[in-house]
Amino acid sequence: MDDQVVLEARGLSKNFGALQVINDVNLQVRRGAIHSIIGPNGAGKTTLFNLLTGFLKASSGRVIYQGKDITDLPPFKVARMGMARSFQITSVFPELTVHENVRVSAQATQAHHYNFMMNYKRLKQAETKADAVLASIGLYEQRDQLCKNLSYGDRRVLDIGISQATEPQLVLLDEPLAGLQAADHERLVGLIEDMAHSMTVVLIDHNIDIVTSVSHVITVLNQGQVIAEGTPEEVKGNPKVQEAYLGGV
Ligand SMILES: Nc1ncnc2c1ncn2[C@@H]1O[C@H](COP(=O)(O)OP(=O)(O)OP(=O)(O)O)[C@@H](O)[C@H]1O
Q1: Cβ(18) – ligand 1 distance below 6 Å
Q2: Which partner for 224 in 2, 23, 75, 131 could form a disulfide, CB atoms 3.0-4.6 Å apart?
Q3: What single DSSP character describes residue 41?
């Protein structure tokens, strides 16, 4: 297998009863890319993310990550293999501080040993990691604030920090810009571009201008099928894509 392919879907399908939501999807995500998945509402983007990360069981087909078949693994095992995920809905704990939210995430990837000294050392490592992540995402100043008091834009940035704290090799971001003011877009896009220096990024977003400006590769889903794939220019100029977006189907 091509070791530049970090994540692959092979003939992936999912149906809910009679409704076929993902239909024979083949996808190859290359190491270090920002690879976006776009498509009209209900195209199956989030379902595809759920299949890739073990949150849903495929009806048929396989998911291969770093050369290993992860199709039947539960999400926590997929996460331990270095695949992180953010959700459409912000996933911070509102009653914890900014620092605590990131630290909990950093701790979640550590092995557990019931040894007091070891636990103390690991806690310190997680604290240091959390502070480094907060500095890199520009939230260090808000370190001790309760998350419920953060602005919505800061919460979305923190979501990304939470996924970074696990030191993933691949991160899947589901609509990280959803609900953000235009003023916060630039901040998030900068973060996504920074992330891509050290990991592979798979992105779902509805903001076509932003997706086309940050992505190396775009896959277009419509009614559960891949209808186009290529560079932003290739995809933009594809008549099938224009038709899907203009409601021609
Ligand atoms: N658990 C489920 N049971 C039944 N149908 C589902 C389930 N989850 C999703 N669907 C259906 O699958 C289709 C695809 O949904 P999905 O959320 O994956 O699309 P999407 O492309 O992410 O949409 P959006 O852009 O609106 O977020 C929709 O018709 C949805 O109603």
Answers
A1: no
A2: 23
A3: T
Domain extent at residue 13? 5-245
Tokens describing residue 225: 């099928």
Report which protein residue has its CA nearest ligand 1's atom 8: 47
CATH of the domain at 36: 3.40.50.300
Q: Does the CB atom of residue 54 touch ligand 1 within 6 A?
A: no
Domain tally, the chain: 1
Contacts of 81 (CB under 8 A, 6+ apart): 65, 66, 68, 70, 73
Report the alpha-carbon distance of residue 204 to residue 35 in Å, rounded. 9
Q: 48-91: per-residue pLDDT in tens?
A: 999 999 999 999 999 999 999 999 999 989 988 999 988 766 67
Q: Whose CA is nearest to atom 17 of ligand 1?
A: 46
Residue 31 CB: number of other CB atoms within 10 A?
Answer: 15
Contact criterion met (CB below 8 Å) for 180 and 156:
yes
Measure the CA–CA gap between 206 and 222, rounded to whole angstroms: 13
Which residue shows structure tokens 């299949």? 51
The predicted-structure confidence for 125-177, as pLDDT tens digits, reads as follows: 999 999 999 999 999 999 999 999 999 999 989 999 998 898 899 999 999 88
Alpha helix (H) ranges present in 109-231? Answer: 116-137, 152-164, 182-195, 208-214
Nearest C-alpha neighbor of 139 from the set 178, 88, 179, 103: 103
Residues 6+ apart with CB under 8 A from 9: 25, 26, 27, 48, 51, 52, 61, 62, 63
CB of 120 sitting under 6 A from ligand 1: no
User: Quick check: 102 and 130 in contact, CB under 8 A?
Assistant: yes
